[in-house]
Design goal:
The protein has 228 residues and is mostly beta strands. The chain contains 1 helix and 11 strands.
Length: 228
């Protein structure tokens, strides 16, 4: 049964990869990511995050994203977050085409709602962002909303499958910003650390990016109690 499930996951990811090459960039890029969630008390935890994105798998820098936030756990199902992010973007990135360079300071607020549907774990994330953009000596302020539905399914005690779809909507100018479709195979290293190897199809209004993703996820308890 375990071999059959892993075979299905591999076929799914391979099909998504082959289909993605029909459109978009000539080169397959990659995102290398770290996510940390550190419990501070019964109600509060600290989110930390770093992402390094490339136009090619190991070359041609695209974007660096650093993000942090304070989480407040209302109960087992609901969590709210307030945080800050800094983004440095290569000149060829779609949102800043033909600009020499770009940077962004971002403030965000979000609500996460967790649900279970049999063995499926559902995660709804609603995020509001205030974006302070700077490119070629010019600055701009924009607002954006994001919604992500993430579904996780355990394949065994060690392996799991993770998929999500996230839509970005601008609150000015053109409403549609982008859509991200993601599928991955994950593995639990221990009770606090897991890794995911996946594939992302990133749709913009005028282009599509195909990205491999390698992510490391850490949950740790700094309060002296059980882990998150």
């Amino acid at each position: 049964m375990m071999k059959n499930r892993l075979l299905v996951v591999c076929i799914f990811l391979t099909t998504l990869f082959v289909k993605a090459q029909d459109q978009g960039e000539d080169e397959l890029g990659a995102w290398y990511m770290y996510f940390g969630n550190y419990k501070l008390s019964e109600k509060f935890s600290l989110h930390t995050e770093a992402q390094f994105r490339y136009y090619e798998v190991t070359d041609n820098f695209n974007q660096m994203l650093l993000r942090t936030g304070i989480n407040y756990h209302i109960n087992d199902r609901f969590m709210v977050t307030a945080g800050y992010g800094y983004i440095e973007t290569d000149a060829l990135y779609a949102e800043f085409q033909n600009e020499p360079n770009a940077s962004e300071n971002r403030i965000y607020q979000q609500l996460v709602v967790k649900d279970n549907w049999g063995k499926f774990r559902l995660n709804h994330r609603y995020r509001l962002e205030q974006r302070f953009l700077s490119a070629a000596g010019n600055s701009d302020f924009q607002n954006r909303v994001r919604y992500r539905l993430q579904i996780t399914y355990p394949l065994s005690e060690t392996f799991f499958m993770n998929v999500y779809d996230e839509i970005f909507l601008n609150l000015q100018d053109t409403v549609f910003g982008q859509n991200r479709l993601y599928g991955a195979l994950g593995a639990k290293i221990n009770n606090n650390v897991s890794v995911q190897l996946g594939y992302l199809k990133n749709h913009f209004s005028n282009t599509k990016f195909d990205r491999l993703q390698l992510g490391v996820f850490i949950n740790a308890d700094l309060s002296g109690n059980e882990k998150l």
